[in-house]
Amino acid sequence: MAGFPEAKFQISPNGWINTDVFMSWLRDCFVPAVAHKRKPVVLFVDGHTSHTSNIEVIDLCIEEQILLYCLKSHASHIIQPLDQSLFGAMKQAWGEQCQKVMNQTGESISVRTFTAALKPVWDATTRPEVAFNGFAKSGIYPYNPERVVHADKLAPSRTFSTAPRAAATAPPPVAVTAPRAAATAPPPAAAPSPPPV
User: Fold this and answer.
1) HEC profile for 35-100?
2) Where is the DDE-1 domain (predicted)?
């Protein structure tokens, strides 16, 4: 792949990651990349089943002293480090690059031109300091749970805001109590039956 001699290419039936693609990446990319690191190492993943449902993944992590840590489901927009920094910058730069290629060539990016178009985006956005910033912003490293607790994305919606409402928009209070007499009075006596005819 032009511009990415070390890259590995994978496909799946629907284009999304699956257990086979993740296992291949873990075994062929991640394990060699951290082989020289002091063990154990931590690998943060989201809770997608491709990361957690394959026993071979678990076995490899145990063997290689990799702590596979799943971030809380449905919270990646708050605590996933690369969502906090790198992916946003990359998405914006990729959109600009796609527009630039279209303006220059009159054609959209194809499989054949993808890596050449991606290379300047990759070089501009995948810098170590951008990734480090994501870990700091998410409160993972340096450890700071206040970064998550006070995240703007956890602020209450306007519907549940504690700010006082204007009197005109507040609904009137409704009393839901039964009269005391009704609760303690004996049931009414049954009416006598008419005499048989």
Assistant:
1) CCCCCCEEEEECCCHHHHCCHHHHHHHHHCCEEEEECCCCCHHHHCHHHHCHHHHHHHHHHHHHHH
2) 7-111
Q: What is the pLDDT of residues 100-144, one digit of tens each?
A: 999 999 999 998 899 999 999 999 999 999 989 999 988 889 998
Q: Which amino acid is at 172?
A: P
Closest CA to 71 of 121, 156, 140, 122: 140
Taking the C-alpha atoms of residue 63 and residue 76, their distance in angstroms, rounded to an integer, is 28
Backbone angles phi, psi at 42, to 5 degrees: -105, 135
Q: How confident is the model at residue 181 (pLDDT cuts 50, 70, 90)?
A: very low
Q: Work out the widest C-alpha separation in the chain, in whole angstroms.
A: 108
CA distance 127 to 84: 14
Q: What is the pTM of this model?
A: 0.67
